[in-house]
Amino acid sequence: MSGRVRRVAAPVREQVVEQLREAIETLELKPGQRLFERDLVEQMGASRPSIREALRRLESERLVVSVPNKGTFVATITRKEVREIYQVRTSLEGAAVRSFTDSAPDSQVHDLKNAGKAIREAIAGADPKALLRAKTDFYEVLLDGAGNQTAQEILVGLHIRISTLRATSLSRPGRPEQMVQEIEDIVAAVERRDAEAALHASTRHVVQSERSVLDALS
Predict the structure, then answer these.
(1) What is the 8-class DSSP label of residue 115?
(2) Cβ-contact 59, 96 below 8 angstroms
């Protein structure tokens, strides 16, 4: 994890949530790993109530699970859950890409292109944390421009759940470069205002991501 929490800016509990979420997303904390409150208190310099509140927050996001009489663990996702998550993601993300292509202003298309460039730069720099931020920024632009608040809320929740899967997927040889090309194909179709091509590119990206994750889990 990035170290002890700061006593400025965001409330301590928000900093704890952010740092723990990032550690889970980058696989610094691995699926199935037990989380001990006393260790987190010492490592992060936060109070036990702040740690407990952060763990409750992450449990609501399904990133950790609390097992009675055993403790709190980083959540694991089964192959069945992977298929279900990516099935929903394919449908909702495709609809969002189509809507964005049809209605987003040129300024947001420009922002999406820049977000895609940031993903390539993070891959080139071999910086997993920068890549997570870049992917998050990309989808924030995309979902905001799509203008469907309900789809946005659902997809944000899905993206949080699959954050560890993303790290797993990108650990596969050749997958980072393939992923960048898929993102750039989406952006190129959006720039042409070709909704069908954008939908196709989005679907291909999600399907390839699912395959990569399932291969890694095998």
Answers:
(1) H
(2) no
Q: Which of 51, 43, 48, 61 is nearest to 14 (CA)?
A: 51
Considering only CA atoms, which of 132, 144, 134 is closest in space to residue 97?
144
Strand partners, 35: 72
Mean pLDDT computed over every residue of the chain: 89
User: Residue 203 in contact with residue 94, Cβ under 8 Å?
Assistant: yes
Joined tokens for residue 51: 């740690």
pTM, two decimal places: 0.81
67: helix, strand or coil:
strand
Secondary structure letter of residue 35 according to DSSP: E
**165-195 tens-digit pLDDT:** 777 777 778 888 899 999 999 999 999 999 9
For residue 200, the Cα-to-chain-centroid distance in whole angstroms is 21
Instruction: Give CA–CA dist 138/141, Å, rounded.
Output: 5
Q: Counting runs of H as helices and runs of E as strands, what totals does the chain give?
A: 10, 3
The amino acid at residue 116 is G
